[in-house]
Structures are given as C-alpha cells and as structure tokens.
UniProtKB/TrEMBL annotation:
It catalyses: 4-(trimethylamino)butanal + NAD(+) + H2O = 4-(trimethylamino)butanoate + NADH + 2 H(+); an aldehyde + NAD(+) + H2O = a carboxylate + NADH + 2 H(+). The active site is at residue 265. This is Aldehyde dehydrogenase 9 family, member A1a, tandem duplicate 1. One of its GO terms (cellular component) is cytosol.
Amino acid sequence: MAQSILDLIPETCTGTLTITEHLNFWGGKRVKPLHETNVEPVFEPATGHVLCQMVPCGAEEVDEAIKSAYGAYKKWSKLAGTERARVMLEAARIIRERREKIAKLEVINNGKSITEALVDIDIAWESIEYYAGLASTLSGQHVQLPGGAFAYTRREPLGVCVGIGAWNYPFQIASWKAAPALACGNAMVFKPSPMTPVTAVILAEIFKEAGAPDGLFCVVQGGAETGSLLCHHPMVAKVSFTGSVPTGKKVMEMSSKGVKQVTLELGGKSPLIIFKDCELENAVKGALMANFLTQGQVCCNGTRVYVQREIMPQFLDEVVKRTKAIRLGDPMLDDTNMGALISKPHLEKVLGFVDQAKKQGAKVLCGGEPFTPTDPKLKGGYFMSPCVLDNCRDDMTCVKEEIFGPVMSVMPFDTEEEVLQRANNTTFGLASGVFTRDISRAHRVAANLEAGTCFINNYNISPVQVPFGGYKMSGFGRENGEVTIEYYSQLKTVVVEMGDVESLF
Ligand SMILES: NC(=O)C1=CN([C@@H]2O[C@H](COP(=O)(O)OP(=O)(O)OC[C@H]3O[C@@H](n4cnc5c(N)ncnc54)[C@H](O)[C@@H]3O)[C@@H](O)[C@H]2O)C=CC1
Ligand SMILES: C[N+](C)(C)CCCC(=O)O
C-alpha cells in the first residue's frame, strides 16, 4: 500500500508541514483530482502557514466515488454482522495505535490543543468499537400468524450513505457517521469541510488496511458544490450532515427530491442553568467546559449561562479567574489549553460579535481580543482571548445567535419557572445543562428543557453509548447510542404462507 499521509508527520511540527498528496479516496486508493479548478488554500490556524490545497471534486469524480461505494456495499452488506465487526475492530485498533499521529494532524489542520485532539481521536475509535459490538446484534422479529403462517423482519442496510462534515471535529465527525453506517452494512462517501480536508482520508486508509472492501469508505473533497452533487446523486440513499442551520435546510431540501433519508446535526445556543444550591466550583468548571472547548467552536456549547442572582458575584469572580488562567498558545504543546480559531474571517466574525455585544450594553469581564502569542512562528495565527460577558440580556445578539467562538454570555435569574421559560425561548434545541444539588429540581428541569441533551452537574461529555442530536431547528436523527442503528437501516417484512392461497377472486 502507498505511504499513508500519517507518515509525513515529523516529531514537532507547528508551521512546517506541507501536504501535496492527493486527499480524495475511492476504489481503495488516494485519487488524483481530475481538474485543478476552484482550488482553495488550506491554512494552519495556529500559524497561517499554507498546509495544502483543497481541490474540489466535480460531477464525474463524485459519480466515480459513489459507484465505488456501491460496489463495496454489494459485498459488505452480504457479510454477517460478526464479519463486519472484525474489520471495524481492527480499524479501531489501528486508530488507537496511531492516536498521537492522527491527533497531531488534527491539531495542525484545526488549531485545537493536542490534549483535546487526543480525546477526539479516542472518542472516534471508541465509536467504531462500540458499533462493531452492535453489528453482530442486529436482528429482526418473528411473528406467528393464523393457520401456521408467519412473518419475520430483517434489518437491512440503506445502501450508499453520504456524510457531510464540519470543521470543528473533523476526524471524530467522520467516525461518528462511518461507524453506525458500516455496522449496518452500508457504504459511505464522506465529504469533509473544505477547511479541514486532511484527516478523513486517514480514516479511509485505515478502513482499507483493516480489510474493508475497496470503496467502503470513500472521501471526496470540496465545498458547497460538491456537497450538492452528493445530495442530488440518484444512487445515494441517505445524507447525514453536520453544520449550520441554513446549510442543513438546503441539504434537507435537496435530499427530498430523491426522497433520501437525512440526519441533521445543526447549530445551537444552549442554556446552562446554575442554581444557588449548586456546588459552585463544579458549576464554574462546568461553565468553562460548556464554552471553551475547541476555542468555543462546538455546536452543543452552553453559551447562555443563567446564574441565580444570589450567587452571581461569587460565580463571576471564579469564572473570570479561571478564564484568565487559560493558557493560549502553540496547540501542539501539552500545557496549552486553548489554540487558534479555524480561520481569519471566522476570528473576525467572532470578534465582531464581542464588539456588537459591547454596543448593546454587555460588559466584557475578560478577553474578547485578538491575541498574539510570543512565539514568532505563531504571529500569523488566528488566536483570541476567551471572553466572559456580563450584563447580558435575552434580546442581545450575543445571547440569541450562535457565535461559535470562545464567548460566554452570563445572565441573572430569580426563579426556576422564569429561567425555564427564558431558556426555552429559542429556535435551537441541541443541548442544555443544569447545576443544582436538589435532585428533584435537577430532573424536573431536565424534563422541561426543550433540547436533545441535558447535562446534570457536568457539561459536554459525550460517551459513544448515549444518543446525541437536536430538538427544534438544531436538527433531527441521532448520532451515537443504540438508536442510531435505526437511522442507518431499514426493516423488511417477509410474510410466509404455509397453506393454500385463499383468493378473493
Ligand atoms: N453543528 C456543528 O457542529 C457546526 C455548526 N457550524 C455552524 O456553521 C457556521 C458556518 O460553518 P461552516 O463550516 O461554513 O458550516 P456549513 O454548514 O456551511 O458547512 C458544513 C458542511 O456543509 C458543506 N456544505 C456547504 N454548503 C453546502 C451545500 N449547499 N450542499 C451541501 N453541502 C454543503 C460544507 O462544505 C461543509 O462540509 C459556524 O459558524 C457555526 O455557526 C459549523 C461547524 C459545525
Ligand atoms: C464532542 N463534543 C460533544 C464536545 C462535541 C460534538 C459535537 C460537535 O460536532 O460540535
């Protein structure tokens, strides 16, 4: 097999890696782009160094990749669940073995800290391992009918599934989509975000090495145009999308033309409610976890922090102290705990939200400014200091819109009833959180929050065994957990007559 992209990674590598290898993958190998049109440079967020060029796939290439996946689906879907599990477990083992190199590549392409990237890679192989375990449990039902007749159901795959990913968790998103799809006997064509094209192809190489048939997990590079070709292709049975609400709507609309199933993992503006009876230190740590992972670029972040008025001063003191202590810098270093935002325009957009918040009356307690690390090689990076906003009101833009950056908006509340009404007053519904020591209140609040996930006394943990997905405009369908099997398979009913046909004619 050709050299893996992973072999290119030197020991210490911020600002030095340039990738010229092809980043498309189908038919069991990396594929050279057919045309070099609409090429986009891909930047390393921590340095501004050009990491590689993203060459989008056109109609012919998308068609080739989908046909390659279809060929693999024909073989893979005939295997028993235990046979598919064996390949997937081997893939999970290889990822685990190479976790550090994959994580480094993720850091270079995404800008998040190595500590976080390692967790992401671990969650990725855990997901593949988990669905490998479920692959052999897929089964149908047997139903007895009158006269000795009976029926049974078979859980069958859908066919070729498309995955479209965002840039915040590139390898993890690819794995979260591939794992349940492959476990059920489907093949997948995955399109990463044009800003983070490099790690999905590693996953493709690893599935191949683990023994998957050629074409089982394909990667096509590109942006909106390539994504739309995938959604319209007649041989695609399902599209699973992670990204923004406006693009999610388009994906749903395009997929509807071919009556394709869709899973939408969209944005959020999740509430985190902190009651005065909470364990304060944990609540503060939870608020940081809810806002500052991956430089705040996380769809399920709890960015509307509602704090019961009586404990507001203590909460703010502590949260600001801890936010100021966040170490920004070279994301490749173990003691850095915040890296760079994904791109210069995105950094400017996030800083723009902070400016607007100030104009609307919010008070910046810390951060919210461009940050230049002392290391000269990081001078061109897209860093900003994590920000805590006080004096926020529900009608401010920073409280209503998804910022997708390290900006926490804090608001006081008085009663449970009031805070629930305010927390639910949004079109989003991805996640939510509550800190309290009152067990009845915790479960009552969880039951009343309109969101796909509610964290009690923690935030942003994502075990692969539990379903993840949105309410309202944050999307539908789920990732992770047993239920996701339903989103990547369909039921066939087989009805068996044991006697003579009683015809009505
Ligand atoms: N829910 C989440 O995890 C994420 C939410 N977002 C939100 O989206 C905002 C913009 O980020 P983007 O990466 O630009 O998100 P986006 O929604 O524009 O892109 C997500 C993916 O969809 C693809 N895409 C774009 N247009 C398409 C089309 N017409 N048909 C098919 N595929 C298409 C993109 O190439 C990318 O792979 C962020 O600022 C944030 O608010 C972004 C990343 C992740
Ligand atoms: C891993 N987790 C829960 C922090 C985030 C996953 C969802 C996303 O893609 O933003």
